[in-house]
Amino acid sequence: MAFGAASSVLEMPTRRKTFPMTRIKAAYLTSLPARVRYFKNMSGHPLTPVRRRSSGKLLLASSLFAGVFSLHTVGAWSQAKPAGPPPDVMVFTNGDQLTGTLEKAIGNSYTFKSDVVGEVTVTADKIKELRANGNYVVLKKGEVVQRVARPGGTLAADSTSVTVSPASSSSQTISVKDIEDVIDTATYNKEVMGNPGPLHGWKGGFTAGVTDVQATQYGETFTLAANLIRAIPSVDFLPPRTRSTVNVLETYGKLTQPTIPQTNPPTPNAVAKTSIFHADAEHDKYLNQKLYVLGDVSFDHNFSQGLDFQQIYGVGLGATVIKDAKQELDVKADVHYEHQSFIPPVQIPNQPLLPASPSLDLIGSSFAETYHRDLPAKFILTESGTIIPAWNNLNAYSGIGMVGLQFPVYHRFSFSTSLTDNFLNNPAFGYQKNSFQFVMGATYTLP
To answer: Could you tell me if 119 and 263 lie in one domain?
Structure first.
């Protein structure tokens, strides 16, 4: 019995489903000489002859599958989102060129973000040509912003002028010296027309540090901090309305010193404890561009000064003295109610009683300044100082000063260091007036 041609699809008729190995053997046989018509399997029995099976149905099924797949692919392509605008291009006067996105402009300074070099700020005199294909709004100096949405348009600029081209109106060319701000349209309309909720717009970061000692002495110290700020609106081209700040710092540690040499009976180990907590919050309501009224609260616990708990609730006035693209300086003063309670001394049996510091209810004021500056290489310097006199007890005054430096490490993570000095003129009996901290840690900055 003859076998089918080599080009046919072959299988062996059995009661069970045909296996791929059977197909391979049958296909192999078709290539043998015509005189070889039978072969034996491994058991020695003759193998059932292989017969040809028509491939027409298989070809039809394959064609239908290919057609359905092609239609599905074409449909998916047709439903894909249209490509966005091409990247923005900035050409410098020396011929160099960057591609990326124009983020904003303040006066004659343009902030441009490139995938290659990151975010750069360039003055207009160094720009030969700028083509921004997004949608932007240009504000002139002295222009009063109304709570009305604006359409914006694409932007073209050089060292002396900026031309904005809205889709629904004619182009407008503005001299660089007359420009106050350039903002993307989405941000402009959101800030002008939106009413943000209480959780919107918070910025700042969280810091953590840890120290572990395992030797003759053993112990750990943990430091956690949060510094948050929320300004409404969050952009510089609109006059400020409100600002809220929250700051929290906690340092806790314990160091154990064994008794060496140990006595009989055993002497308990000596334990040194650190527990310093500070938290404050403030809400400002601006009266104009610089002056604002404020409400503030603060809470302190400092074991190293014998201060069990201090709480302050006040109202006052503040002013933004300096504010530009790189720095901001605020001064403020309040009148507040203050309560202080102190840790009672440990009384020693058969010894004279140690005096306890009484709790105090005070009427006082806080005179404070805060300073923030952006340094080169994205370093950030922060500094603050507060003096807190009490008007009904001139001996119960205190103060706190802080300076910190933060520099980027990886994406939103940075390394930070800070120096903090707390002064309390009336500490509990046996405690020092000053408490000094030097903290290093890793900081995560919120988007």
So the answer is: no
| Lowest-pLDDT choice from 168-172, 181-185, 335-339, 425-429 | 168-172
| Among 22, 49, 79, residue at a domain's last position | 79
End-of-domain residue from the set 165, 193, 221: 193
Q: Are 326 and 275 within one domain?
A: yes
SS (H, E, C) the chain: CCCCCCCCEEECCCCCCCCHHHHHHHHHHHCCCCCCCCCECCCCCECCCCEEECCHHHHHHHHHHHHHHHHHHHHHHHHCCCCCCCCEEEEECCCCEEEEEEEEEECCEEEEEECCCEEEEEEHHHEEEEEEEEEEEEEECCCCCCCCCCCCEEEEECCCEEEEEECCCCCEEEEHHHEEEEEEHHHHHHHHHCCCCCCCCEEEEEEEEEEEEECCCEEEEEEEEEEEEEEECCCCCCCCCEEEEEEEEEEEEEEEECCCCCCCCCCCCEEEEEEEEEEEEEEEEECCCCEEEEEEEEEEEEHHHCEEEEEEEEEEEEEEEEECCCEEEEEEEEEEEEEEEECCCCCCCCCCCCCCCCCEEEEEEEEEEEEEEECHHHCEEEEEEEEECECCCCCCCEEEEEEEEEEEEECCEEEEEEEEEEEECCCCCCCCCEEEEEEEEEEEECC
pTM of the model: 0.69
Residue 368, pLDDT score: 97
The per-residue pLDDT for range 252-271, each reduced to its tens digit, is 999 999 988 888 888 889 99
For 58, the domain range is 9-79
Domain membership of residue 37 (yes or no) is yes
